[in-house]
Predict the structure.
Amino acid sequence: EVQLVQSGAEVKKPGESLKISCKGSGYSFTSYWIGWVRQMPGKGLEWMGIIYPGDSDTRYSPSFQGQVTISADKSISTAYLQWSSLKASDTAMYYCATSYSGSSDFDYWGQGTLVTVSS
Amino acid sequence: QSVLTQPPSASGTPGQRVTISCSGSSSNIGSNTVNWYQQLPGTAPKLLIYSNNQRPSGVPDRFSGSKSGTSASLAISGLQSEDEADYYCAAWDDSLSVVFGGGTKLTVL
């Protein structure tokens, strides 16, 4: 059974750093892209970027380029999304999801990680 | 403002057929396939339709998708109360990113 299990909810202060994770199991982790999708409170889905764990090829949405870093450790089948300096506007639910093609067809999703940034 | 345009809301009564539209441009829907997602309240999105009109295993055939030019549609026939959810279209854009519609909240009256 394919599963993506994300790390737990985080409460951080503005300016702090954060790295959230997404662990894949039940499939060949290095053969599928993993994307990250943001959903701000009460809002729609936004594609942040995607990584191919097999060779760490990474693509970012222009809206998120330079704002976050996407990485993966194939030895432990885990992808990451990190911030160096959080803002209140980063408060959102973040989902990871797999895609075979690297396009917009995300077939398996994690349960989401809620990030709250507040002073 | 989302790159793909969806109506913010739609509604229908049980048993009815409803359609949700998704309008894009030549750089996304016009040249790439469309996928649809269903997001039930408080849950992660679920892939409902891929490659314009294909259903993943387990998705009822009450759900169907179509694409024409720079627009796509999701149709739900035999509407059921459990279909009440948010629906999103998505496509690859030739600017090298995935774009989503703003979402349509479906209410079953």
